[in-house]
Amino acid sequence: MATSSIIIGKLDHWFGEGEARKQALFDVDLAIEAGKLTVLVGASGSGKTTLLTLMGCLRRVQSGSIRLLGQELAGADEAVLIGMRRRLGFIFQAHNLHESLTAMQNVRMGLEVHGPGPMRQWQPACRQILTLLGLDDRLDYLPANLSGGQKQRVAIARALVGNPDIVFADEPTAALDKASALNAVMLLKRLGEERGTTIVMVTHDAKILDLADWVVTIDEGRIMESRQAGS
Q1: Which residues have a Cβ under 8 Å from the Cβ of 128 and sit 6 or more positions away?
Q2: What is the pTM of this model?
Q3: β-sheet bridge partners, residue 63
Q4: What percent of the chain has pLDDT over 70?
């Protein structure tokens, strides 16, 4: 029987105050299956990234419910949210690498939120994930000496090195060519399957839909469709 990593009920969200207040999400109900690649699709401004940041504890729930790995986020205090973020990985369109740090050192930052235990073995952990992503010959390179595809693979490695329960990815392949984009998502999916990691991805790339397990379509802040990929 399938289990859900994320269960959302009657979720609404607004931006702004007073007359400028605008509703971004409307009555969202959604369950995201554990260990699968779920893709959120929709036009720019449809609410995909807002939903992703709410699930990822980067915004506070205003109205409705999000149960993340069994923890209710609505009304949760900052200590709970910080604890939940430690179980998550994030990949963004901009790779957000520190230009003064090597690939190994950038990936190391993905372990720092997990406390002193994992940090004691940071070198083998970072080397292993970078090698899995085909960067074993770039461990000591600075971002300025990496291609766009290599930088994004470092960002993926940083998200995965702490073995998170869920990875949230917001347009992670937008800056990559088609071949690099497909390779990056295939690697992400394979590593997710091997580790039982749930992956939730926002993308405009139609080719990536072929790799998804589940596709959720959002339009003007509403869930229009949630279906198994290929159905």
Answers
A1: none
A2: 0.90
A3: 12
A4: 96
Distance CA(29)–CA(66), nearest Å, equals: 9
Within a 10 A sphere around the Cβ of 146, how many other Cβ atoms? 20
The Cα 149–Cα 156 span in angstroms is 11
Lookup: tokens for 98: 């520190």
* Residue 209's pLDDT band (cuts 50, 70, 90): confident
Domain-located, residue 209: yes
For residue 2, is it within any domain?
no
The verdict on residue 166 lying in a domain is: yes
What pLDDT was estimated at residue 230? 66
pLDDT in tens, 35-78: 999 999 998 889 999 999 999 999 999 999 999 999 999 999 99
What is the number of structural domains in the chain? 1
Beta strand pairing call for 198-202 and 166-170: parallel
CB 189 within 8 A of CB 203: no
**Could you tell me the CATH number of the domain that includes residue 197?**
3.40.50.300
Kindly state the tokens that stand for 114.
Answer: 């997990």
